[in-house]
Amino acid sequence: MSATRLLFSEVQPEQALPPLTVEVTTTLVVLGALASRDWRPMHHDRDFAVQRNGVRDVFMNTPNQAAWFERYITDWTGPTGRIGRMKFRMKDSIFPGDSMVLSGRVVARTLDAQQCGWLDLRLCIHAGARLATECEARVALPLDTEDNPWRRRGESWQP
Amino acid sequence: MTETLPDAVAALIGQPQYQEQTEFPIESGYIYTTCASTQNGNPLFWDAQTAQALTGGPIAPPTMLSVWFRPHYWSPGAEGERTPLRTHFELKRLLELPEAVITDNEVVFGAPVRPGDTLHTRQVIRSISVPKTTKLGRGRFWVIDVEYTNQHGEFVGTDTYTAFGYVRGGEQ
Fold it and tell me: In this complex, is the C-beta atom of A157 within 8 Å of any C-beta atom belonging to chain B?
């Protein structure tokens, strides 16, 4: 199985990540909730979501959105990209029927004292025209073909 | 809601609470289901040779960290709704704030989590704000760290939640 292996030197500040569009279905929302062991009814019971939460349908849960961001980042970096940190802010909900678009850009590219190459990314999910979620992520990339961020342990891993 | 932070609540700040371990060893089924739910084809999670070469064997997607501590929906002898992040619900109760929303969530990832691992966690209240009024209502913000280690005592991550607990009735 082969995959892209993006190197630190191949990325420039302000570089955009290619957008990813996903058509959201009820199955996708429910599958994501159950995969993340989130049994709360607003993620699988439409009546509950409408009557108790006052929203139009079931909606995607936060842990599954984190998993979508992870997939989005590592689709771009390949398997040697190692995520060190992620921060979210939820703005709106993502419902079945929405066209979910993940997008992002590189806001900083730094080398730490341990000689680990870091990218700071600013990402977001739009559900149609609505901004649903903002995310800041920090991902380590290999400096060259011999480097591998996954080998870092203890003091050499400072996310 | 009381305007003064009760001493009993203030005393909880910085104190580790709810030390727990995973109810089952980390397992591949949830890893595959999570990857399927996000159509994640990262070979680290599907190809044993790639995982061996890059991470020394299979690992779980880092963003699954909180997944491993969500309780079963039902288990023998358990009564009532079982909720994760118990400190959050305890603060709602102690501060008499019936509603709450998580406003921010930051996760730091340490050593990879691997199938077969047993993880340990504890929750620490980092801060509780003075009373504030927002569009949602009047209440307090609080910050809770959920710290995770593995069976070797290695740091595997911290999940930091900022929440606003409130009584409905917002700014005019």
Answer: yes
